[in-house]
Write a structure and sequence with these properties.
CATH architecture of the largest domain in chain A: Beta Barrel
Radius of gyration of chain B: 21 Å
Number of domains of chain A: 2
Helix content of chain B: 40-55%
Distance between the termini of chain A: 51 Å
Shape of chain B: elongated
Number of strands of chain A: 10
Number of helices of chain B: 10
Strand order of the largest sheet of chain B: 2-1-3-4-5-11
Shape of chain A: globular
Oligomer: heterodimer
Amino acid sequence: MTKAPVLLRLRNGIGHLLDIPMRPMHATAGLLLIMLSLSACKIVKTETVTTEEGQATAGLDKIAQLAEDSFAAKLLPLIDTTALDIAALRSAIAADLDGAGAKHGNRGAGQGAAWTFAVKGEGVVVSANLTSRARKAELDTDGDGSADLTLLLGPVIAGTALRDVAPFYDFGSFKDQIEFAQLARALNDKASPALVLPEGDLTGKRLSFKGALALKSAKDAFVVTAVNVAVLP
Amino acid sequence: MNLKRRLLMSAVAIAMVGALPSFAAAADTIAIITPSPDNPFFKAEADGAAAKAKELGYEVMVMVHDDDANKQSELFDSAIAAGVKAIILDNAGADASVAAVQKAKDAGIPSFLIDREITSTGVAVSQIVSNNYQGAQLGAEEFVKLMGEKGEFAELLGKESDTNAGIRSKGYHDVIDQYPDLKMVAQQTANWSQTEAYTVMESMLQANPGIMGVISGNDTMAMGAYAALEAAGRKDVIVVGFDGSNDVRDSILAGGIKATVLQPAYQQAQLAVSQADQFLKTGSTGVDEKQLMDCVLVNGDNASKLETFALAQ
């Protein structure tokens, strides 16, 4: 909905370029005025226009670049090397979420923000919704026959766990919450193509997974944003 | 009307400033500056800050800038002149407020921002920002689910001059646009207004009788839209709002509007005062300047726990 200001580039009689930003509402009147008063000038449509929209695009490019540069090079290795087994995490947070978080996790920006952990594990699929654009599987990871963990399988991935698990993405170094959110989305989009599942029903199959999990309290349901999932034989 | 109210507010501010010296010796004062309490969200914010400040032994000086940056600047002058120890602020513009906060800083008074961010860092001590983008994503995820990932929908946008109107819309579309079977057939501003949303919704519905859902930039517009849908016999249309007002809570509980997103205004304001208190006592808040505060989805499952922008545990 951002209205890009109209920008006119005029070449005056001695060859200088004049850039004239105009509010859209006044653009027509302004154009008439300029055409009347500068009838000798040639009006050239600009190719590179620096507008608010242009800057937003530049911001987005910057974020896309950051995701591109860091996803495979830093984020995936971080998850690989620090992933805690889901059973170990369960017992650590049962004792003390903040302690477990400080030791194994990373806290997003701000007080009350969730602790985010890199996790890995295996489980049997109790049920799965693979027809949604946001596919998910409910897993039993502790062998009691009931589902205790939700695995997000894309292609639409919600949440900010992949961003928040990494200490090297710091909210304070982003312009605003929009840029910071764009990073989370860019990282989710990078994770999505790797989540390839076999055709057909997953129920009863054993999956291994690796990913990130955000917890605000020890009682929160486990919802893991996967970066890697495989069906075990 | 407006002038009268401004004069009244100034008079209140002056009266408070005038009254200060009598109790300044007894206790330190924290200034609380917010937009108009006509919107219950900002009232909850000011109330939360004041309650916490009093609990911690401070006097409070509560002022309203009415989203007018010039007025905000005057209020900062009043607060500085009154010798307040700290300022809690929900600001009147991301760019325009930097100078006012800097002015206080130069006078040795730390500012603690709530709800909205400003465009500079290192000027305020804390910026506790409502994560409107995350909140909008939550609302959109619920909307997508309620819609069954398909169908025609309309969007009501907030006031264009308000940063949060754009942030929320972007957050909505970040999620919804990933579902190709969800088609936006109408998008229009209703300027945060309930009555305007009613008429906008009426005309949207006339032009697009196939609408199955409405996603709204705030709760007052959601209320207006739902009233129009109800009048047109279209209570089947899914409406999702934003703010977590008591009106929408009641509508959710009565089976009307389906969901909203709570910004924890009361809690956020209290947190800012706690950080101010710690800063005054120790010289540090112990946390980063910019802090995001997440929003919470409110639907039929938890609406009954919602009261004045706070969820009971």
